[in-house]
Write a structure and sequence with these properties.
The structure is a homodimer. By secondary structure, chain A is an all-alpha fold. The first copy, chain A, has 2 domains: about 1-55, Orthogonal Bundle (Arc Repressor Mutant, subunit A), CATH 1.10.10; about 55-210, Tetracycline Repressor, domain 2 (Orthogonal Bundle). Chain A is built from 9 helices and no strands. Chain A has helices at about 10-30, 35-40, 45-50, 55-75, 85-100, 105-115, 125-140, 155-175, 190-205. In chain A, helix 1 crosses helix 4 and helix 4 packs across helix 6 (about 105-115). Chain A starts with 9 loop residues before the first helix and ends in a 7-residue tail after the last helix. The mean pLDDT of chain A is about 90. Chains A and B meet through helix 8 and helix 9 of A and helix 8 and helix 9 of B. Chain A binds a DNA duplex (30 and 30 nucleotides) through helix 2 and helix 3.
Chain lengths: ~210, ~210
DNA sequence: ACTTAAATCGACCACATTGGTCTAAATGCC
DNA sequence: GGCATTTAGACCAATGTGGTCGATTTAAGT
């Protein structure tokens, strides 16, 4: 088989995945401890190095996994036939929350990776990374209907502000629900509140009904 | 003398302060290394423990220092006779940038401290911390002129969105100027751009001239 | 039931790093 | 000169590091 680890029982796989993602997300590559990983994953030390030969290999495996998830479960799901910027990102925000609910550490891990700027990556991972950046850029900027915006406003700045508000709300939500098991929570009221912010943004930046 | 460290030549004091703040900001208390601190501060190991008896004492000293700076150089400077929310935070944003330019690590250090939630602090530090929270709350919410806001908008939400936009701009600025010595930079063009965002927020949330 | 192969653990390795100490030299001061 | 303070870094026991290995259990095949 291509990878020993892949053919493990799902539950153990998840335990190891989560333990390792958390450890790297919390401490970065160098300071992450394989001892802590095996302890939290509740496996013997030997196993970790049986599945992944070295600490670095483990890191690359996780990186590949996270890039894949983010690309397939998040970016690729963003619908660019939706030409309304805010509507597009309303759905994107929901997708992001779903991914976070299922795998809180995928996004955290990638977060720490982004600001660690490693000099060189294995070819296939570099490719995935490039693909992710390209896809991300496209999903944000392509095929937006500029005519929805009021004439006198700076659309570039509006884009940024909308993103900051979405990020701000996400951040606040995460911190106010810290500890609670996100995935078994009824998210509806939070989405409702999220939508109110988006409506405010629309009435701030979009043309009013009359002048369309 | 009350504290050996205080009566050092300014330049050496700064070297030690910066080295230690950076180390704790990057790694948190446990993982921070006194060896790295002395290396970066370019002093002998003995000195650090001569000035501050233990690692913990050093940490508390820094904490006290950072709380003090933030309180005196930032929070206390915010003018609450300015009743216009956005104008108040325009000046607050500038103060924050100035503090950051002079001491990038003070805010970073406090940032890591906030989310580390230590169980118990020495009395005097706990007091400073409480004072900071109280002062912070006051400076944000007290004496705001609500009548500036348009009648149909949710002011609480507007507050938050304004803060998210300011934080977003700060974050973007920091990351786009990363590496450059912030303090020797001409910040004017960036303030100009910052103001444009604030103007957009005003026209989004405030009453127009006519309806005042 | 017997053999062989894969999976699993954790003691163990050599080495690096930890917070903190202490000696001995350098420097400042009268 | 002589006393006190400042300085550097070798040194300490303790802990932690990534990674290995032999021993034991489990699974599979026939």
């Amino acid at each position: 088989m291509t990878h020993l680890f892949e053919s493990l029982e799902e539950e153990k796989k998840q335990r190891i995945l989560n333990a390792a993602l958390n450890e790297f997300a919390d401490h970065g590559f160098e300071q992450a401890s394989t001892n802590r990983i095996v302890k939290h994953a509740k496996i013997g030390k030997g196993m970790l190095f049986h599945y992944f030969n070295t600490k670095k290999d483990l890191y690359y495996y996780l990186l590949h996994y996270c890039l894949d998830r983010t690309l397939n479960d998040y970016l690729k799901q963003i619908d660019i036939t939706e030409r309304d910027f805010i509507e597009r990102f309303k759905k994107a925000g929901e997708l992001k929350m779903e991914l976070f609910a299922e795998h809180p550490n995928v996004l955290n891990f990638l977060g720490t990776f982004f600001l660690a700027d490693i000099k060189e990556l294995p070819g296939d991972i570099q490719a995935k990374y490039d693909q992710l950046q390209k896809e991300g850029y496209e999903k944000i900027y392509s095929n937006i209907d500029y005519s929805l915006f009021r004439e006198n406003i700076d659309v570039e700045k509006a884009f940024k502000m909308i993103n900051w508000v979405i990020e701000g709300y996400e951040k606040e939500l995460k911190s106010s629900l810290k500890g609670q098991s996100f995935s078994e929570l009824n998210m509806e009221p939070y989405f409702k509140e999220f939508y109110k912010y988006l409506e405010m943004l629309k009435s701030a930046f979009y043309k009013k009904e009359g002048e369309k």
